[in-house]
Amino acid sequence: MTAVLLDGRPVAAEILQGVAARAHALLERDIQPCLVFLSVGASESGLMYSRRLERLGTRQGIRVSRRSLPPDCSPAALEREVAAFGADKAVDGVVVQMPLPGNLRSVDLSAVMDPRIDVDGITVENAGRLALGLPARVPSTAVAMMEILHHAGIDPAGRRALVLGRSKVVGHPAAELLLRGDATVTTAHSKTPDLTFVTRQAEILFAAVGRPRLIRAEMVSPGVVIVDAGINVVGGELVGDVDFEACSEVASAITPVPGGVGPVTNAVLLRSVVESAERRQR
Ligand code: NAP
Question: Which domains does the chain possess?
Answer without folding.
Answer: 31-116 (3.40.50.10860), 139-262 (3.40.50.720)
